[in-house]
Specification:
3 strands, Alpha-Beta Plaits, mainly alpha, Alpha-lytic protease prodomain-like, 9 helices, 3-stranded mixed beta sheet, elongated
Amino acid sequence: MNTQAHKARINLMKFTVIVGFVLMGIKFCSWYFTKSNAILTDALESIINVVAGAFALYSLYYAAKPRDEDHPYGHGKIEFFSAGIEGSLIFIAGLSMVAKAVYGFFHPAQLDKIDLGVALSAFTALVNFFLGRHLLKTGRQSNNAVLIADGKHLVSDTISTIGLIAGLLIIFFTGKFWLDNLVTILLGCWIIFTGFKLVRESVGNLLDEADMEVVNSLIEILNVNRKQNWIDIHNLRVLKYGSHLHIDMHATFPYYMSLEESHEEVHAIENLIKEKTGNEVELFIHADPCIESSCAVCLVNNCPVRKFPFREKLEWKLENVLPDAKHK
């Protein structure tokens, strides 16, 4: 594991938690001055931000633990669990927002100092937006589910705050205070949807659901850098353990190659994938000998044992790389 990169992610998460705590205080001050349900629900969601951020920070520490006998693939899957917890908390926050707004329709409250509430909310939205974008960028570069989930959370928080500000401005200029509850319900539905998406992605990763974006990227790398001795790639599997990728595949080479030569080809594939993906990758590549029916798609020039003439170069794609079958 890249220790320096991991320390940088942990420090970024620490900073995120501290900023979230400060913004939470600002939002509660804004609610105190305005008495707005929409601002209150925004402040309550900030509690979720801080709690989820703290758990995310712990998960980064835990994911950095070295492999052991009980966790031969490492501890990276806790990152998906953390993302699921965060999504669940966001979902619950959205439900509470809707419930509070419905209650507000029957027990309306007079709003005050809306202009101050707008100013404070705008400041928190600006901070969350830039911090969320930075988390997303860093998370995608390092393939880190924790940073991506927290980045999505902060960006969704920014969008909901923008909607909140728009609602408060309408209320300020029209004097229709019931719109406060309507805005809250709309924001609550958006947050519920965001939380559901995070939970869905987390469950998929925990159940080793194939990430087709990663698989297609890997196939593209192999196609572009293909060597003639790589007759085919099949039975490709990609598992995600947090920011770590575990890749299994079978590679078919000319059957007359020595064990040492086959090993060199396997090593070349490993180096290529590690270099091009930029991720922490573990590969298990099984070397297969070619068969006669592969001759028609074999790119080896002047093959001394070719049984059938070459017909066409077979492009590697999902349909022929994922099945456990040599290409014919």
